[in-house]
Amino acid sequence: MLGIDVEPWVALEKEMRASGKFNPRGLEWRQLLRDCLRGLAVVGWSKAYDRILAYGVVERSKLSDTFQVRKLFVGEDQRRNGNGSAVINNIVQRLLLIPVCGSPSYFALTDSAKIVQVLETNHFKKVTTDSMPDVGIWAKLAGVYDRLPAALRNEKADGRHLLMRPP
Fold this sequence. Notes:
The protein has 167 residues and is an alpha+beta fold. It has one domain: Gcn5-related N-acetyltransferase (GNAT) (Aminopeptidase, 3-Layer(aba) Sandwich), CATH 3.40.630.30. Helices cover 34% and strands 22% of the residues. The chain contains six helices and six strands; from the N terminus they run ααβββααβαβαβ. A six-stranded mixed β-sheet has the order 1-2-3-4-6-5, with helices on both faces. The N and C termini lie far apart (37 Å). The model has no long low-confidence stretch (mean pLDDT 93).
């Protein structure tokens, strides 16, 4: 494939799947690489450029000028040495610099308290049914209703959060 070493991408897919933390949609190594080649992903490489240590992507939703921050991944080595939050913060900041449109809105779905903290540092706000009573309608229009946190569907909370960052 264009002279690109696919082994790091195959390994990334395996590691992301093994974590059990990611929606399997779009986790194929070809899709991860395609997102990178399209300029929509941020990749953290090892010094030898033989392993992917961190990854994140912005993905267009079905709503105009609205993008989801997805697949925020930090490898075990980075998490173990205590750099996980700093690496995620760097990825998020770099994702927000990708020129996707003139005035984008962003959102993210996560069950990770560390990711929530990083996103809040980057001006994302947790969504509640009080702050956004029509969140279910918004989620259907954005194409993410099936992944909406249970509490936002008036069900028992499942520990997941929707965070939004306006333009």
